[in-house]
Write a structure and sequence with these properties.
59 residues; two-stranded antiparallel ribbon; 4 strands; 17% strand
Length: 59
């Protein structure tokens, strides 16, 4: 079985784990109503996607 030859230093471990961060979701504007929505998602306010109606929203 393979065994590491040397102990992994704290600096090497921490620099590797520095990439484990969370990013905020990308928000775009709806072309129809202007509300902020996640990209590539049908707008829950008006039901449009890429300027075209996809879902009928009833009040």
């Amino acid at each position: 079985m393979a065994v590491p030859k040397r102990k992994t230093s704290k600096a090497r471990t921490r620099s590797r784990r520095a990439q484990w961060n969370l990013k905020a979701p990308q928000l775009g504007k709806c072309q129809n109503c202007g509300s902020r929505i996640p990209t590539h998602v049908v707008c829950p306010q008006c039901g449009h996607y890429m300027g075209r109606p996809m879902v009928v929203i009833e009040d």
